[in-house]
């Protein structure tokens, strides 16, 4: 996989560290950190984020033991990753597996458009935190600057930005797998279900709820747009929407039939191929007259 190496200071500025958390309670401490992220404009929906984080904590405490916890949530937010770190000298009860109070909270909110982002971040944190000497330096830091400089050493390897996956195409992939699952023999199911669950992890609950409803009702939920026409209901999609579908990561729904819309892959591939061929054409080698003819014939269908 194509990876990009970076360290924690890419996501963490000193302003994102609260050296003396006021809260002594798990929920309040998380809220205190979220409030700072809101003030720094790194997240835009505190309540949703808090709900997601608490849901995750209720599933299983994110305390790692040794006085450190990593509360986290996947929320469609302003940035790709929003991090806040809080330190508590007194310690907070996090229902940690080792029963120890938590003195250091590393709160992570990340955007679902980058598959597996948290796994890469968490892997980097775990590699660092597994060493007792690193934990000791973090927990014994005398002030914010010292804590910041230790945290800055944490190293990550991330997939490159161009691996950002369009959510609509993720929905389409999910649909393809759901259809395969329906037809698949039992021995192949396990692998497909695993793949399906991985994709579902990357998508918002609200998107999935509607996706499931459409799948159940119609057998599919995502429709391709070919030449501006929804392939589910054959109605034209507005030109504006048709171009937006390809370029943005937003999710569009057909106003007529309610299916999620995705740019037709074939069309996209064909156009990219044509553009590439155009670029690679050796200049001057082609007779000018032929070029004119080509342009003329290409323009014809659009004029009808
Ligand atoms: Zn439609």
Query: What is the architecture of the largest domain at the second tier of CATH?
Result: 3-Layer(aba) Sandwich
Number of domains: 2
Q: Which CATH first-tier class of the largest domain would you pick?
A: Alpha Beta
What string, H for helix and E for strand, traces the elements in order? EEHHEEEEEHHHEHHHEEHEEHH
Strand count, sense and barrel status of the largest sheet are: 6 strands, mixed
Question: What would you give as the CATH superfamily of the largest domain?
Answer: Mannitol-specific EII, Chain A
The parts where pLDDT drops under 50 for at least 5 residues are: 284-304
Instruction: List the ions, cofactors and other small molecules found in this model.
Output: zinc ion
Computed structural class: alpha/beta
Shape by Cα distribution = elongated
Any key phrases for this structure?
alpha/beta; elongated; Helix Hairpins; Mannitol-specific EII, Chain A; binds zinc ion; 4-stranded mixed β-sheet; 2 domains; 6-stranded mixed β-sheet; 304 residues; 11 helices; disordered C terminus
């Amino acid at each position: 996989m194509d990876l990009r190496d970076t360290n924690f200071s890419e996501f963490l500025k000193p302003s994102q560290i609260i050296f003396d958390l006021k809260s002594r309670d798990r929920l309040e401490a998380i809220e205190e950190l979220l409030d700072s992220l809101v003030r720094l404009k790194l997240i835009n929906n505190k309540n949703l984020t808090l709900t997601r984080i608490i849901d995750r904590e209720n599933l299983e405490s994110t305390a790692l033991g040794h006085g450190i916890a990593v509360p986290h949530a996947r929320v469609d937010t302003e940035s790709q990753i929003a991090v806040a770190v809080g330190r508590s000298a007194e310690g907070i009860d996090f229902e940690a597996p080792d029963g120890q109070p938590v003195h250091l909270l590393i709160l992570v909110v990340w955007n679902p458009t980058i598959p597996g982002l948290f796994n890469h971040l968490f892997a980097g944190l775990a590699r660092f935190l597994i060493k007792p000497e690193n934990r000791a330096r973090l927990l014994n830091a005398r002030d914010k600057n010292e804590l910041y400089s230790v945290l800055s050493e944490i190293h990550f390897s991330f997939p490159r930005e161009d691996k950002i996956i369009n959510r609509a195409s993720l929905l389409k992939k999910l649909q393809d797998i759901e259809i395969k699952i329906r037809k698949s023999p039992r021995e192949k199911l396990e692998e497909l279900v695993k793949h399906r669950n991985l994709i579902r992890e990357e998508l918002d609950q609200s998107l999935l709820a509607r996706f499931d409803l459409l799948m159940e009702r119609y057998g599919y939920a995502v429709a391709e747009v070919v030449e501006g026409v929804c392939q589910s209901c054959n109605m034209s999609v507005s030109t504006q929407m048709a171009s937006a579908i390809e370029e943005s990561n937003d999710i569009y729904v057909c106003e007529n039939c309610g299916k999620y819309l995705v740019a037709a892959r074939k069309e996209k591939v064909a156009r990219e191929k044509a553009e590439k061929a155009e670029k690679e054409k050796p200049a001057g080698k082609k007779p000018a007259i032929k070029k004119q003819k080509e342009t003329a014939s290409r323009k014809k269908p659009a004029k009808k």
